[in-house]
Write a structure and sequence with these properties.
Number of helices of chain A: 8
Number of strands of chain A: 24
Distance between the termini of chain A: 42 Å
CATH topology of the largest domain in chain A: Sulfite Oxidase, Chain A, domain 2
Radius of gyration of chain A: 24 Å
CATH architecture of the largest domain in chain A: Alpha-Beta Complex
CATH class of the largest domain in chain A: Alpha Beta
Structural class of chain A: alpha+beta
Oligomer: homodimer
Helix content of chain A: 10-25%
């Protein structure tokens, strides 16, 4: 150990006196170089990656970054076969930074197994018809000439719930993702069609054999539904519905129909075929029942991660709500006795993830950390014990219970720094 | 042509009477289906993409989306060999939607040819030293424990200039890109080190043989410089400096040192080696000379694109400034006689792209369209004739001229709808 390494180790351990006040306290794996790294020469330069034509045209991530999506163990069931008929694939939230979910890592939920419709966008059309004065059929080129909007929105699967059996935040909360979506407001198109006074609901149909979504109130369609062709600055990804999907901001994921080809405006509630039969709610229950509640989760530190020792940590996580924008997030580091206001890393937007953080000096004792959020219409995320009846319902009956499990997620920090599911 | 197609064609051509007021006017390639598309069955279902393990773990774009980066013909020179010593690679702005540049399509400028350092993040460290009380050497794990920020910022190459020889917006303006960056403020780390009163400048060094950047004022370092490890929700891409790059918001791209491994705080202006010798400016000129001016460009319609006929179009483009946030964008559709306020698709942020749009009904006559922006410190993008002396300077002398070419870009619309460089 050279003198520079010694001085660094001393700094991190005794940092309480530091001007900046950040006391890491524990040293990660020591790879410290001297304060004067050797000047690179042709002899000691880093090894090189040789750029290929493919890398120039469309780059890829580093071979050292290995974060991947996994089959989601829905409600504690064994992982389904991702190449089978039904699958849910969860995003690696434990590795997430910032707000955007990379399109390559966006969660997937489908009734089609791993198969995706292979749609040539030059041949794709969107038809709007039903209770309208002027039915419209638009090519992708037609659609792109309409006034567009760009909005940050999350999508979350109704099955995104946690219990004491899951180990990582990818398993507990990995079926929510957030992208910058670009497209045309459905209201723009419906104004073009002219809604009849009989228009009460609409149904969105994709180019799939099995459609999961039920009817959506026309007032929601005229409010903020978005016919999206862009995701994070480029075309939608095939797994997200290329070339077109409908965004129904704040509603559960199954309403965001992929491979969208038809919008039918109807004069009554219309029940789609669904092989699970889990959308048996009637119209009276539907209008608000599909809306995701206020929700948050700490992504670092989270299950299976390990704190190297006592010292400073920035607790970091994501919060969202189907009811509007996130207003506040509170973090507890003592199992819920005291709640502290977290800061936001981005400006909260309606039905979008916000990245929150709370600075924490861990003293090395066992504790439980958790977060809760309140949205801008006043809804507060509930503690798990407050919705005890809901989470006692066995998985087989999940889909018949109104409401979604948006309860607070506790992570237990052990003395050795290991992090585990606080419900286990 | 069935009756549905007929009614659609009639609608688009005669749309002036429509309730919604959007008159596309011209019909794209007619692929209209009937208003009641056939119900999918196993006989007529779309062809399927079979998901592979790789697609589940980390998805890719559609085979139908072929937008790619290209070697940038700097200042009208022939395209350099991208596998040679020096290259610039431009982003396909003509296909861009929204604000984020997909990481796979972020522009690249380098002095290393297509080779990239192959850095194992577990072995990488960042050293801060020089005119500080406590030098620091941090591993990536150490760095990620500090308080973080997430910010939208553009990076633009000083060589991103246009003339009458370029055909597409990728060629004229493709060396600017915008990402959501996550990392630690340099000021957080420098406070930890404790700046000496002698600290006036700093130099950023990457793990490359050739460093292009000159000294940066320490006041800029303490203001908004960001040591970034995250880009668009995941780790930096290798072509953007994996595992670490410094963001110097608003300064020309070459200051955003990639593969960052050392920050040296100095007591005087320090001239780095640069093979081009193009950073010969002295300290008096430097502080503001490296800052990108207010700038904007229309990406649709832009060079080599074609309007299918008279009717409604949404003119769309990007605006940015190194001086702060964009305040206004104006669009002219008559060659600069009248300027109309454009709307923003996202909230302008400091040193970040903003997507602007202006609704336009093209009457089919020849015209020139252009955009200009004003930033929130009052700087206005100049017309090309206002900076005539600058753009007359031949390419060989580009780098010796203070200031960058941020002049207004005109696109000429011909009667046949074709779009060409308005300076040609």
């Amino acid at each position: 150990m050279d003198s520079e390494q010694k001085s660094r180790r001393a700094l991190l351990k005794t940092g309480a006196a530091l001007a900046g006040g950040i006391t890491l306290g524990a040293v990660g794996k020591a790879n410290a170089q001297s304060a004067n790294p050797p000047t690179p020469t042709s002899e000691n330069a880093s090894p090189m990656i040789h750029g290929s034509k493919e890398l120039i045209e469309y780059g890829q991530r580093s071979k050292y970054v290995t974060s991947v999506r996994i089959a989601h163990p829905l409600g504690g069931r064994p992982s389904p076969d991702v190449f089978g008929k039904v699958f849910h694939v969860a995003s690696p939230l434990q590795d997430s930074v910032g707000v955007i979910t990379p399109s390559s890592l966006h969660y997937i939920a489908t009734t089609r197994g791993s198969f995706m419709p292979d749609i040539d966008p030059k041949l794709h059309t969107l038809t709007l018809h039903g209770e309208v004065d002027r039915p419209l059929t638009l090519t992708m080129d037609d659609l792109k000439r309409f006034p567009s909007v760009t909005r940050l929105h999350f999508i979350e699967c109704a099955g995104n719930r946690h219990n004491g059996k899951q180990r990582t935040v990818q398993e507990t909360h990995g079926m929510t993702s957030c992208s910058e979506w670009t497209g045309v407001l459905l209201s723009t198109l419906l104004k073009e069609c002219g809604l009849k006074s009989s228009a009460k609901w609409f149904v969105a149909e994709g180019a799939e054999e099995v459609k999961g979504a039920s009817s959506i109130p026309i007032v929601k369609g005229m409010d903020d539904c978005l016919i999206a062709y862009g995701q994070n600055g480029e075309a939608l990804r095939p797994q997200q519905g290329f070339p077109l999907r409908i965004m129904v901001p704040g509603f559960e994921g199954i309403y965001h129909t992929k491979y969208l080809r038809r919008i039918k405006v109807t004069n009554q509630f219309y029940m789609n075929y669904n092989e699970f039969g889990h959308l048996t709610r009637e119209d009276k229950e539907l209008a608000l029942g599909e809306r995701i509640g206020p929700k948050s989760v700490i992504t670092y530190p989270s299950g299976t991660q390990r704190l190297p020792g006592p010292g400073f940590y920035e607790i970091s996580g994501l919060a969202w709500s189907g009811g509007g924008a996130v207003k506040t997030v509170e973090v507890s580091t003592d199992g819920g006795k005291k709640w502290n206001r977290a800061e936001f890393k981005n400006t909260p937007q309606r039905m979008a993830h916000v990245r929150f953080a709370y600075p924490w000096k861990w003293d090395g004792t066992e504790t439980v950390i958790m977060s809760r959020t309140t949205d801008d219409i006043g809804q507060r995320q509930a503690l798990r014990e407050e919705i005890a009846e809901w989470w006692k319902v066995p998985f087989e009956r999940d889909y018949r219970v109104p409401g979604l499990d948006n309860s607070v997620m506790p992570w237990k920090i052990s003395k050795d720094g290991s992090v585990t599911n606080g419900l286990a």
